Amino acid sequence: MRNSNMPSVNAGSMADIAFLLLIFFLATSMIRNDKGIVRDLPQPCPPGAECNIPLKKNNIFSISVNEKGEIMANEVTTNIEELKNLLKDFIDNNGDLSCKYCKGEKLSESSDNPKKASISLTIHREAPYQNFISVQDEIAKAYFELREKYVSEVLKTNAKEMTGDDLKKMQEAYPFRIIESAL
Strand, helix or coil at 130? Predict the structure, then answer.
């Protein structure tokens, strides 16, 4: 009988090679950066300045979502499909007649003008997350449509041709003012 030693492969450096491959793929692969819901946080109040600005009740549109996901707009039960139009009517109301570009109904119980209109959003902690996102989407859609109309009718341009100055005017005409809280 011959010497029956089985040939073997030296696997001592296999772990090193696997580790180097792992490092290579981690270094060269792209990791997506999910942004979530983009919101600008308010700046801190400068020392000595008065930052608690009182809001008139008619300038606040209250939206609340309970633990079952039901939506209340100004204490009236509503569905998600109606919310955008209610918001647009509230924001574009022009109750104090100071807004030259507003097309609202000029109701005294609704917002004075878009610059004073605020949206108060209260979400119950146990509300379905999808309802929270849906309400946020409807708020964004309402502002988007009002801003789009302002750009085309007042600034006489479109979104692709807007300058930085036009963008600033649009944001000043319809500022995004939202107050969020959780129950």
Answer: helix
